[in-house]
Amino acid sequence: MEIALVTFFVMLIAWTCYALSISQGSEEFLCGDCRFNDPEQCLKVERPRAILCTSYRDKQAPVSESEFKR
Length: 70
Ligand code: SF4
Hints:
Mean pLDDT: 86
Order of helices and strands: HH
Helix content: 25-40%
Structural class: mainly alpha
Bound molecules: iron/sulfur cluster
Largest sheet: none
Distance between the termini: 56 Å
Number of strands: 0
């Protein structure tokens, strides 16, 4: 039983470290430094507290050519 508990906590810590290493953004929520963090540009219900978002774009990063075409 104790081995299972220790294994669980080790896996939990490893997963947390992995999630932090792949997370985007530098603030608590992605929207904090997203270029679309504006009610007129983003209608997602997650805004302004999105943790995961496929539309996230770093406002410090240059705008890519494919974004200009939209
Ligand atoms: S696109 Fe995603 S990360 Fe950006 S403001 Fe909207 S919900 Fe937040």
